[in-house]
Write a structure and sequence with these properties.
Blueprint (H helix, E strand, L loop, with lengths): L10 H5 L2 H10 L2 E4 L4 E4 L2 H9 L3 E2 L21 H9 L8 H12 L2 H5 L2 H17 L2 E3 H6 L1 H11 L9 H9 L8 H27 L5 H7 L1 E2 L2 E2 L2 H32 L1 H9 L4 H11 L5 E6 L3 E3 L2 E3 L4 E5 H4 L34 H18 L4 E2 L18 E3 L1
Parallel strand pairs: 2-10
Antiparallel strand pairs: 1-2, 3-7, 4-12, 5-6, 7-10, 8-9, 11-12
Length: 402
């Protein structure tokens, strides 16, 4: 079939990829997309199986060289970026991944995360209250962006005077995750990686010398049978926590409010019954996914839905499509604030399941709760525009009035 409908660079596709996915799931659930050089996988069952399949990986470098996988060697100028990224757990595989996740989990505990809830709630109330006090504004910039960066900075132990640096560094580094980033974007990402690494190296050394009650201190102290995080691994982990925890949560908040404004009946239902906030948050993550696609490398020959995909290929797992698969979700294109069960895969599956999922849920529940309480008549001023990227999918702004 023609795959003209799937175009991750098209503004129309970014704004509404779901009709294309509906067609692909039905007619061509696995197909090779020439412009990206990726096998596009659209059905829930296949996406879920591949996320758990150890014959695929976030990277191939533990299994073969760039040349063996048909890739150009990485440009020398990108070395600081890749050194930073590969020091965290996102782009590595077992046994390195197993070791890092075990160590980080000892510091990033459920108790530590749950202990943040009162601070998250107070911050969400402050941000929502400030927006309400001036009659409205850009909900994305003034509430959605401000909340997670402050929470992660507080949790890590970044001094308040330095927090304004984090969001630009995060955005610049994440530019590299888009499909075929331009050379300008690559150079910007490298500069941000160097600056952020240097900053965290200094901060982590001061915390090793004088530990405090923050995550950087905990990561610096954590040990398991004599094993510790190296300084580079600690820095890579902190950057990952900020980037992953920040970009996705900001976009989920913006996309979520836009979904509610487009479904006024469900917004009214939520306003009338705040006990629905937890299920509504899960539905917002399913209905309009802020991280709609994750890539994996094929480390051994596989077959997906009867299609052979040889070693050395890359698959593009379409979370946004899987989350609207009618084989799993009744009425998948309908927003249902009380949908239960809701087995969306927005946080992934398998060994790379999002470590920050509990924190993201707290932030989203408190953020939506504060806005619903303090701005019960919140209105959209004008239809928002989508940013050009598809891999990190979000709005440019969300202008509202109370």
């Amino acid at each position: 079939m023609s795959n003209v409908a799937y175009d991750p660079w098209s503004p129309a596709f970014v704004a509404d990829p779901y009709p294309a996915f509906e067609r692909l799931r039905a007619e061509s659930p696995v197909f090779f997309h020439e412009p990206t050089g990726q096998w596009v996988i659209t059905r829930y069952e296949d996406v879920g199986a591949l996320l758990r399949d150890r014959r695929l990986g976030r990277t191939y470098l533990h299994a073969g060289s760039h040349e063996e996988f048909g890739q150009e060697p990485e440009a020398a100028f990108l070395e600081p970026f890749w050194n930073l990224v590969r020091a965290g757990m996102l782009d590595v595989e077992p046994p390195t991944h197993t070791r890092l996740r075990r160590l980080v989990s000892k510091a990033f505990t459920a108790r530590r995360v749950e202990g943040l809830r009162p601070m998250v709630r107070a911050l969400a109330e402050d941000l929502a209250g400030a927006l309400v006090a001036k009659g409205g504004g850009d909900l994305l910039a003034e509430v959605a962006e401000a909340l997670p960066v402050t929470v992660i900075a507080e949790m890590l132990g970044v001094p308040e005077s330095d927090r304004h640096l984090l969001r630009p560094w995060s955005a610049d580094i994440c530019g590299m995750y888009e499909l075929n980033p331009s050379e300008d974007v690559q150079h910007t990402a490298v500069r941000a990686a160097v600056e952020f690494s240097d900053y965290l190296r200094e901060l982590s050394r001061s915390r090793r010398a004088e530990p405090r009650d923050d995550l950087i201190s905990a990561l610096a102290q954590v040990a398991d049978e004599g094993d510790r995080l190296t300084e580079d691994e600690l820095i890579g982990t902190c950057v990952l926590l900020l980037n992953a925890g920040h970009e996705a949560t900001v976009n989920t908040t913006g996309n979520g409010w836009w979904s509610l404004f487009r479904n006024p009946g469900e917004l009214a239902r939520l306003r009338a019954d705040h006990s629905l906030i937890p299920t509504a948050v899960e539905e917002l993550m399913r209905y309009d996914t802020s991280a709609p696609m994750f890539e994996r490398w094929v480390l051994e020959d596989i077959q997906v839905a009867g299609v052979d995909i040889p070693r050395g290929n890359e698959v593009a797992l379409q979370f946004a499509s899987a989350n609207r698969d009618p084989a799993v979700f009744a009425g998948p294109d309908r927003f249902d604030a009380a949908r239960d069960p809701n087995p969306h895969i927005t946080f992934g599956l398998g060994i790379h399941y999002c470590l920050g999922a509990p924190l993201a849920r707290i932030e989203l529940n408190e953020s939506f709760g504060a806005m619903l309480r303090l701005a019960p008549e919140l209105k959209l001023v004008r239809e928002p525009e989508w940013r050009p990227g598809y891999v990190l999918r979000g709005l440019t702004s969300l202008q509202v009035e109370v």
